[in-house]
Amino acid sequence: MNAFFLQASLHRLMSCVMLSWCLAGSAMAAWPERPVRIIVPFPPGNSSDVSMRLIAEKLSAALHQSVIVENRTGAGGVIGTDYAAGQPADGYTLAMGSTGPMTIAQWLRPGTLGYDAARDFVPVGAVAWAPQVLVVRKDYPASTYQELLAYAKRPGVRLTYGSSGNGTTPHLVISSMLEQSGLQATHVPYRGGVQTAADLVGGQIDFISDNVPVVNSLLQAGKVKALGVTSASRIPSLPDIPTLQEQGLKGFDLQGWILLLAPAGTPEAVVARLRAEMAKLMAMPEVRDKLNTMGLVPMEMSTQQLAGFLQSETAKWKDIVRISGAAQN
Q1: The domain that contains 94 carries what CATH number?
Q2: Of 201, 218, 247, at which residue does a domain stop?
């Protein structure tokens, strides 16, 4: 009798498991049944936002469902990233990941973030690198990185540089460059890049480093000179500007990046579908051309490489923040 009931119980259990698998498979086959959101933690119009709108447009066509960019700004991207981390892991909320909120913020404000990027998100696809350009005003007595080094050694020269804020990537990139170069310069933090660029042109500061969209209009207008780019390779949109590596700063390769992420726990079938679609759209010439036009560089990274990317970037920027002294203790 006991054997009979045990066999019956096992049969019912297996039936329930099979039914659950069937229902889960059916649900995943139907996904997405409603619009999908991509949370962008920065304001509309900047390069990261525009790149995500391009991705959303292409994903909408591939998924036959609306993919909408939702901007949730504040605290250097922390507010939107924290919001995305707390959303249901059902495939209907995705997030834009970038250098600041994903890897730098935790070292600037230790123990204060409500999320852990490596724990709370799973990478879906690599989008783009965001290299920076080191620039000086048009009449500055240096036109290359090496000339800047030579000028800085003159008696009485005191260098100043600006950034869009303490602990931002423009600040940290220059801080790292100074450390490796052995240069001394005073940091002048601003609230955003507009006033920083204006004071550079006006001569209140000596140099800045920022993303291509910030400095390109100044370059085109002849108001500033480019000394070098901060990535290991030249930027396709500015091919005539040499890298700092080319000019003697060995191994220097610091730039931002943009990823598409999903909250941890998102069904594997959904993540796999998104990864497949991202691979397709990132291979499209029109997508790559558009990113290059924005001053971004399409990111070549496989799913396997992405798996450890956040961890390695987190470790790298931890040291850079420490050296800069930007952490809020």
Answers
A1: 3.40.190.150
A2: 247
Cα 261 to chain centroid, rounded: 11
Please indicate, yes or no, whether residues 231 and 261 belong to a single structural domain of this protein.
no
**DSSP letters spanning 59-126:** HHHHHTS-EEEEE---GGGHHHHHHHHTS-SSSSEEEEEEHIIIIIHHHHSTT--S--HHHHEEEEEE
Question: Which tokens is 268 given?
Answer: 């594997």
Residue 45 token pair: 């119009």
What pTM did the predictor assign?
Answer: 0.87
- Say how many domains are in the chain: 2
Closest of 157, 150, 316, 160 to residue 248, by C-alpha: 150
Q: Is 99 within 8 Å of 273 (Cβ atoms)?
A: no
| Euclidean distance between CA atoms 213 and 293, whole angstroms | 9
Average pLDDT for runs of 10 along the chain of length 329: 42 42 52 97 90 97 98 94 97 97 93 92 96 95 95 94 93 96 94 86 95 90 96 94 96 96 97 97 96 93 87 92 86
260 and 316, same structural domain? Answer: yes
Cα–Cα dist 47/312, whole Å: 24
Q: Which domain range does residue 77 map to?
A: 36-129+255-324
